[in-house]
Amino acid sequence: MMYKTATLFVVVFAFVACDDEYSTVGGEIIENTSDLELEEVEVTAYSKKINSVQTNNFGNHLLGVYNHPIYGQTTASILSQISLPTNNPVFGVEPELDSVVLTIPYFSTEGDLDEDGNIEYALDSIYGNTPIKISVQESNYYLRDLDPEADFQDRQRYYSDQQDLFEQNLVGDVIYENDNFIPSPRAIVSYEENEQGEQDTISSGPALRIKLPVDYFQQKIIEKEGSGVLSNNNNFKNYLRGMFIKAESNEDDGTMMFFNLQDSNAGIELFYTNEVETINDDGGTDTIRNPKQYKLNFGSTIVNTFKGEYPGDVLQAIEDSNEEAGAEKLFLDGGEGSMAVIELFESEEQIAALRENEWLINEANLTFYVDQDFVEDVNEPARIYLYDLDNNRIIADYNFALNFVQDGNEINPDVSLSSFSGPLETDDDGNGIRYKLNVTQHVTNIIEDEAENVRLGLAVIQNINITNNSAVRNTEDVDFYPVMGVLSPKGTVLHGNLSNNEDKRLKLRIYYTEIN
């Protein structure tokens, strides 16, 4: 009789308190180690360049320039809808715009107070620290919410390689330009009048915060009060079709920022005054100017675009990947980057032969060694992610770890789900640094339950807790790619199944117990 791996875990945990003679394999407790056998199975693994990926289904976005020592320079820009918070806004009598500020909060961590009593912040998810060029310009490209080719039943898809198209539809002058922009960790300080007429100081976390031209928004928004273009968001989205925030390099390096344009504090704030009449001490009336503000939000459709070219040798190595034999190196890169495809078993005959053994599978894993000779001094991604490439879904071991092995760390992407995908670690045998991925339940399902032997996709990941995938186009045999892979600027190179270093060559390792 064959037993499921999950059942094995229950038995082990039930008896571990009574038996001190146990050891671990891959982080899981396994008894009777004298009976444990290892089968190494040759796998096929090769790289794929992601040429175009859907980017208007993200919660967060990248903006800036990142120069990777292996994959070269990438720039990320953003095209976003702008939306009204209320229909038919009323700006009052003789409104005059004083200032306009675009704000996008950074991810940051609150620290201690400085000598003046102000909160100090550390910026999170900022890659690099040298100035870049940022510009803002109005777009006349209409971003649809729904796809007319799908009878408006599906969301319209926009892709990472559409920047040239968007730039062809920019109108008017550039409304903001900064040739030496760099993120600041300083808190944002503002002032607000309280009920007693006193000014309260309001402090919030650091943000990308830039001033936009008053004349443009006076004409574009304030002077349109009462017109049809401000009557509802459908009209407004067709009137002001979007803002394109463009990043460009002005040095060899750069800075890439990761943030959320749909944060409640993100948007374009219009600070203005209008005339109001007040009763003076003599019983008469005075006309004063009253400060007001109106905030435009970023819309529901926001597109990330990417620009960049891989170095010729890297691109050639990816293109030379052999889907029949595999590859010496596996190239993983975020953004509009590259991934690896893993094929565990070469044929149904091979699976049938394994099935006849009637093994009790204790653990199955894939160990990916970093090719440190190729990627010396690279800031490696903390985690990599394996998924069912053919069916666009998680594999069983991810679900098992999610449901049973959390240890209270499910929120921290650096350590959560580590029983499925181990964080980057140093090999105990001195073979270098590696990522170890658990595929025990996936392999068990194939061998014991005759589940489909699907291709597996391997990608870098920004947050392993989020498993949404994006549509891919113009890439043969790849239809979906992890959203959190697109949103990671990091990359690495791993030893493949044809690596010249046999100790680091990729194999499927199956630890089993004979039960017949």
Automatic annotation (TrEMBL):
Entries under InterPro entries matching the protein? DUF4270
Protein's name according to its UniProt entry: DUF4270 domain-containing protein
From what organism does this protein derive?
Salegentibacter holothuriorum
